[in-house]
Every structure is written in structure tokens, then in C-alpha cells.
Design a protein that fits this description.
The protein is mainly beta. About 5% of the residues lie in helices and about 40% in strands. Strands 13-12-15-20-17-18 form a 6-stranded mixed β-sheet, with no helix packed on it. Strands 26-25-28-35-30-31 form a 6-stranded mixed β-sheet, with no helix packed on it. A hairpin with a 2-residue loop joins strand 17 and strand 18. The longest helix has 6 residues. The two termini are about 25 Å apart.
């Protein structure tokens, strides 16, 4: 339930990353051919353009504490040759600082809200407490007030790329699309691979913005259509690489609604981690698909000498979904003598395959939206309900390992995300997903129409979620991470309680469950 601090008077067919072209070879068998394949690149020309790519500013924790301030304030900035008067940016920057912490640290972050809107900050992907002082999305940081987060990071927290953004319902689309998002890094995901020490590292944090309306960002932009897509807040930068030089890219979609499917002229990428979780093996792919909220950490070799194009391919999320064209994201100038190749690491730590674990509870969730005949064009729902922050949809005892079946009845793709925990995708679109590790965001294919009957056939995605970490006790949410959809109702609340402690006084939403826990009524999912 929301409470207010301050006021004006006193933030095969596994997942499409998934990899329609996935392979698991950890070596570099095609590297020599790659270096000789300059003729295959897009628009090969003489290199020499000055690099305009820049990594974001980074704030590091010191002596076990990240002690920092984010000031939310208005600012005027130029993006893609257009001037925007932003009502609210972190530190006045379209690409604010990356926050870097280590497992076991404490985040002491002051949020100084000098804007005219209420907000808060969500630490996307963090396995931390949802209680006050932590990753509490029910918090209100009032306009023209401030708040200090005091949040311990567990010593065993996964290491990798995360991000921060407002989660103040129902203004999430407005605030993220208006520029409020930035990167987070936990630890050093390359530490297990000493052979990669010293290779170039880049952030590619992707966010987009529609053309200004009366000089300001559109207040509640619809995802469909053309948009200005940026890397680290820079529109179409030039990146300088050396042929054969192995680089580490932290790629994150930290925008509000749109998908990115990146290609570098067919050059391969090797995925090491997704959603801040190191995988069990590298995956070789030739495109990177990032739905909203998704992060992929990859290795890539500098292509043969010449000019290459890093492109976001056109997207179509279904008959009732969004459509946007191809866009050049960056120009890559590859020049200099070839570098001796470094092999892709082959030895990865293994994590538990949850398919072998006993399942404590099966639940089903149905995502529906206005693409349905007779649907309300203003509402997106989970299990027929719009989000109501005054009650809890799903009640889960700490220690449960649960199997959730997510049916997408919409003729557009949705994106399932849950706070505080990671999950394992078992099947997607009815097909088994090979086990590479855990994630916190998964794309839901659109429903299809049965040609024989004309009936709509929902897509089916099955995930296993371990609610086993004591730090997650409390109330949080799961939702579609196309945040316009979440703002319009496609979100639900979950309360994880400790059965060894007195039962909390939790109000259960009416008509959402198929079971009971004592006098507290039904729990969500049917």
C-alpha cells in the first residue's frame, strides 16, 4: 500500500534473444575467416572518423558503502539535433551516472526531488528487501522533498548489469520516457575469467525519446512509430574498434516501451550473462533482442577493417501491437592491425536447474489487453484485473518454489517481469527452453489465430520461481515491462510472508485466487 513522504508544502524458440541463431561453441573457430571477411560488412569504407561514443560517468562504492545523491531537476538538453526542455532528469543529465556497488555493500542514496511530480526509485533486478528503505515501489517521494535509501546488498547477490528508474504508478511511462533511467552494476562479472582482464569494456545503455511537443518530451508517449534511439544518451555515435580485438559490452534496454534487436552486419556476439545473471555457458548469436528491461552482457570481436553499422532492426510486436522502423544506432570504424585473438571462455560456474526441484505451487496468469474483441481500449489486465495497490493479488510463503504458467491472450507481445527474484524459463511459446541460467524479464509471444476455427490461441510461457531468499519478505509487484501497459493496469501485487512469523495483516484482492491461507483468503493465480 502506498504511503507518502513529504508533499509540495513540506522515480528453437526460446526467448527471441533467445536466440533463433543460438550456438554454444566456446571457441573461436571462425575468427580467421571473420577477419578476412571485410567484403561482407555493411558499407565498408576507409576508417578514420573520430570516436564520439562515450561510456557514462560511474559512481563507485567506497569501503562497502555507496554514498551518493541523485538530484531530480529540470534541464534543457539537445538530442538528435532537437532541443528538449526536460521537466525532470537525474542530475540534469539525459544519461545519468552508472551506480557501481559490490555484494555486501550498503546503498545509501539520497534522492533530492526538485521536480514538480511525486516519484520514487526502483532498483530493477536487485534481490534486496522491498521494505521501507529498500527497493520499495510503494514509496512516494513527494515533489520538492527528499528521501534516503538505506539498502543492504546481500553478500551472495548476483553480479552484472541492472538499472534504476521510477516506479511511481501510474506515471512510470511518463517519467522513464521523459529521461529518468540509469545503469547499475553489481560487482565484477568478468572476475571468474582472468584471460579477459584488461579487454576494452563498454556500456551500451539504450533509451529512446519521441520528437518534442512544444519543446518538451511527449508526456505519455505511445510506443509505436518512429523514435530517436540513443546509446548512453548519444544519438548515432561513432565507435572505434580494432580488427579481432575482443571487447566486453554491457547492453541494457533502459527505455520505457520499445524493443531493440541489434545486429552488427552479422558479426557474432557471445552472451555471457542476462539480467545480471552469469550464464552456465556462452551462447553465440548474430542478433541481440532486448525487450524493455532486458540486459545482455556480451563479448564481441572487432570486425574486419572498414565501416560497419550497428543497427536496431525493425520491430512488429503483433497485429494489435507496436511497429517501428529500422534505425542506425552507431557507426563502427574498425581500423589498425589485427589483434591476436583471445578465446571465448569455456569454463562457467554451474547453477541449479530448477526443473529438478519439487514444485510447491502451480499458478496461472492471463495477460489480456484491448487487442481482444470488445476489450476496453484504456485497460490492460492480469487475470481480468487492473492493478489495485490497496490489496494483494498473490500471497506466497517464503521457501516456496513455484511454477507459473503465463498465458498471453493478446495479439501483441508482452514482457513479464517480477521484482526481487530471478526465475528460470522452462518453456516459451510451447517449446522447451534450454537451460542457461536465470533471468528477471521474459518476452511473451503474441496470441495466434487458429486458421481452422478462427479462435484465438494464447501463447504459453512457463517459468519456475524460487521464493527462497529471506531478504525478499514483504510486498512487491509483477507486471508487463512495456510500462505503458503497466500504467494502464497490467500489474499485480505479491506478498511473500515468513510462515515462521506471525501472519501479516494483508488485504487480499477480491476474486483473484483459488486457495486460502487461514483467514487471509485467496491467493492469486488460478
Amino acid at each position: 500500500m502506498r504511503y507518502v513522504l513529504g508533499s509540495r508544502s513540506v522515480t528453437g524458440a526460446a526467448e527471441r534473444i533467445d536466440m533463433r541463431h543460438a550456438a554454444t561453441s566456446p571457441l573461436v573457430p571462425a575468427l580467421a575467416a571473420l577477419l578476412l571477411a571485410a567484403a561482407a560488412c555493411d558499407d565498408v569504407s576507409s576508417p578514420g572518423s573520430a570516436e564520439t561514443f562515450r561510456n557514462p560517468r560511474v559512481i563507485d562504492s567506497r569501503d562497502g558503502v555507496l554514498d551518493a545523491t541523485l538530484r531530480i531537476e529540470s534541464a534543457t538538453r539537445e538530442i538528435a539535433g532537437q532541443t528538449y526542455a526536460f521537466p525532470a532528469l537525474y542530475d540534469g543529465e539525459y544519461m545519468p551516472p552508472v551506480l557501481h556497488v559490490n555484494p555486501g555493500d550498503v546503498v545509501r542514496l539520497d534522492v533530492d526531488n526538485r521536480s514538480r511530480e511525486d516519484t520514487n526509485v526502483h532498483y530493477h533486478g536487485f534481490n534486496v528487501s522491498p521494505l521501507p528503505g529498500g527497493d520499495d515501489v510503494y514509496l512516494t517521494i513527494g515533489a520538492e522533498t527528499s528521501y534516503r535509501y538505506d539498502m543492504p546488498i546481500p553478500a551472495d547477490h548476483p553480479q552484472g548489469l541492472f538499472w534504476y528508474h521510477p516506479h511511481f504508478h501510474p506515471l512510470v511511462n511518463h517519467q522513464i520516457a521523459g529521461g529518468l533511467s540509469g545503469g547499475l552494476v553489481v560487482g565484477d562479472i568478468l572476475a571468474p575469467f582472468p584471460e579477459l582482464h584488461g579487454i576494452p569494456e563498454r556500456f551500451l545503455l539504450l533509451k529512446d525519446i519521441k520528437d518534442p511537443v512544444d519543446g518538451v518530451p511527449p508526456p505519455d508517449p505511445d510506443p509505436t512509430g518512429a523514435t530517436n534511439r540513443t546509446i548512453n544518451g548519444i544519438f548515432q555515435p561513432t565507435m572505434a574498434m580494432r580488427p579481432g580485438q575482443l571487447e566486453f559490452w554491457r547492453v541494457g534496454n533502459i527505455g520505457a516501451n520499445i524493443y531493440y534487436e541489434l545486429t552488427l552486419g552479422g558479426q557474432p556476439f557471445w552472451i555471457l550473462a542476462q539480467d545480471g545473471n552469469l550464464q552456465t555457458a556462452p551462447r553465440q548469436v548474430d542478433t541481440l533482442l532486448l525487450p524493455p528491461g532486458k540486459r545482455l552482457e556480451v563479448l564481441v570481436y572487432g570486425p574486419p577493417a572498414g565501416t560497419w553499422r550497428l543497427v536496431a532492426l525493425p520491430q512488429d510486436t503483433g497485429p494489435a501491437g507496436d511497429h517501428y522502423p529500422e534505425q542506425l544506432m552507431a557507426t563502427v570504424e574498425s581500423s589498425g592491425g589485427p589483434v591476436a585473438p583471445i578465446a571465448i571462455p569455456a569454463q562457467f560456474a554451474q547453477v541449479k536447474d530448477l526443473r529438478g526441484e519439487p514444485i510447491d505451487e502451480d499458478r496461472t496468469f492471463v495477460f489480456t489487453d484491448p487487442g481482444q474483441p470488445g476489450g476496453n481500449p484504456d485497460l490492460f489486465t492480469i487475470n481480468g484485473r487492473v492493478f489495485d495497490e490497496s490489496c494483494v493479488d498473490t500471497l506466497v510463503p517464503l521457501g516456496n518454489v513455484e511454477r507459473w504458467t503465463i498465458l498471453n491472450e493478446a495479439q501483441e507481445e508482452h514482457v513479464f517481469h517480477i521484482h526481487q527474484v530471478d526465475f528460470q524459463v522452462v518453456t516459451r511459446g510451447g517449446l522447451e527452453v534450454p537451460f542457461y541460467g536465470y533471468q528477471d524479464t521474459v518476452n511473451l509471444p503474441s496470441a495466434t489465430v487458429d486458421r481452422a476455427t478462427g479462435q484465438l490461441v494464447p501463447s504459453r510461457t512457463v517459468v519456475i520461481i524460487p521464493f527462497t531468499n529471506p531478504v525478499i519478505v514483504g510486498e512487491f509487484v509483477y507486471h508487463c515491462h512495456i510500462v505503458q501497459h503497466a500504467d494502464q493496469g497490467m500489474m499485480a501485487s505479491i506478498y511473500v510472508y515468513d510462515p515462521a512469523q506471525p501472519m501479516p495483516d494483508v488485504k487480499i484482492c477480491d476474486g483473484t485466487g483459488n486457495g486460502s491461507h487461514g483467514s487471509h483468503g485467496a491467493h492469486g493465480g488460478s
